[in-house]
Amino acid sequence: MHRRDFFSAFPFTGYSVIVLADRLPPAPRQPASADEIRARLDALAPPPARPGALPAEPHMTLVELETDFLVAGGGLAGVCAAIAAARRGARVVLLQDRSRLGGNSSSEVRMHVMGADSRHRGWREGGILEELRLADAVANPHRSWELWDLLLYDKVVSEPNITLLLDATLYGARRREDRIEEVMVRCDRSEQLYRIRARLFCDATGDSRLALEAGADMRSGREARNEFGESLAPEKADGETLGSSLLFTARRLDRPMPFTPPGWARKVSREHLRMRSVRSWEYGYWWIAWGGNRNIIRDHERIRFELLSIVMGVWDYIKNSGDHPSSACWALDWIGMIPGKRGSRRILGDHILTQHDLMNGGRFDDAVAIGGWPMDDHPPGGFDRPDLPPNVAVHTPSVYNIPLRCLYSRNLANLFMAGRNISCSHVAFTSTRVMATCAAVGQAVGTAAALCLARSLTPRELYRDKAALTRLQQMLLRDDQTVRGLINQDPDDLARRARVTASAELPPARAANVIDGHTRDYPDKEGKQIHHWAAPVSGAEPWIALEFERPQRIAEVQITFDTGFDRMLTLSAQDSVNRTIIRGPQPETVRDYVLEARRPGGDWVELESVTGNFYRLRRHRFAPLEVTALRVRVRATNGAPEARIFEIRCYA
Length: 652
Fold this sequence. Notes:
single chain; seven-stranded antiparallel beta sheet; FAD/NAD(P)-binding domain; alpha+beta; Jelly Rolls; five-stranded mixed beta sheet; disordered N terminus
């Protein structure tokens, strides 16, 4: 039976997991309880499911689901898209074709998460990714990749609005005119087929599988230099891209550890490595890449074999060539079996991001996320081209903005994309492909999807409705997403009309900075542009207060703390990367504090007392009350000698 016959064979009468909550403000909720999670998982095999409903699959059970927003792909882009949409009130189904979330950052591939701050100090991505990074640094100081997997799983299943399907492969889609109506998904582990309807869809699969099945406009390979006037593009267009990589880790033991390679291992010589650095071997190597001149999808098994043969050959050279005698006591303890992909298909949107956009900072009225990794191109032949450097990196002058128009399909009205498959040229892709940028794009897409659902807009209509677009950007800023050049102008934020006082301040980190609209300090030719408040904590409990001319009805206070954006923060097995990373609470962050309110009668009341904080963004909700002032009293930091706060917001 063809897929089109299957879709037409059954009228939609299935089990539903949809209840759209039109609630745009982020709603801090209690994480789902164990019983709630169990109930959600039981709903994936409901009584109305029909065993043998598909003649061609007599042993598979058909399950029909309905949701607001379907996200295909559980890498960091898909995870952040799903969480962002769910926290904004949308019901989400998240699909992942493997048993673990995180994509190339997971224990299956183990690539550290890099982004804008890797080349532009101080521009570490905020938002959901920062939340994940901070939680991992605290709960996983010993750098276990499996605990990173578990953190992502916990964050997703604990969201009441997310239904997670692991080991679930999307293999079909039905559209009506320019809209996707439903998709087909299979899980052979549970012997179930899922037919899932949604109002909006997001392709975060990397390979654009949903877009392929639905008939979205796409491209792959490298454009000719004259198509966009990109100096970094090849003279002629071709179908080549960046190869995939396999990583490995090794550890030192207390005795010599011999190594005998398999018979199919490459024979690697010093000549093969003359442009590839072998200085340490605890974690290696991104330059073990291959397959960019092959079909990166169809030739998957050949690519895996060649990468394994190169890994074995490189390790044989390290251990047995005599050039690295200090490796004698080192042994492999993990080898990747899933190639970490880079290039693949890219979905075309209303705008195609190019080299020019990245070099001019991305001056877009619909900016929703930032990037900043260099345009980092690799020879398609990878390791088979020892005569070429393994990469050529051209730095952008600054971080750049990514527009909404690159994040939705130009020919499918209800399809978003997030991750390495967004609408861009190959040259721009060599920068936007890194995972921290993909995560920021995912948060933008999830937030945009929630707004589209609440206002019954398509993504393109959201762009054209300038009031709604401005609303989206302010929603993103409220959720700690960074968009270059945008500041807090949220008309609902009552703090913007307050007078700020403090017990002390350390100029230029003045108290008034907490309502200046900025949530980070910016690098400057003369040092830094300071946008936080700071006061010493030694021997005192510094406080900062918002005072109102007349009583205000307040139900939520949001505080953005300092978490050390000047440092890199990621999970990595590479010693050189870890030297400057703090695996624990960041010392600048306020650890213990009290939130207080002054009532119209003049009495101060405690709203909340917090201990052990390590997060950057904290929201406090309470029963609405009339206040004439709000105060944050800092009792301790995680090590820094001064308290620091970037922003305080408050809402009715």
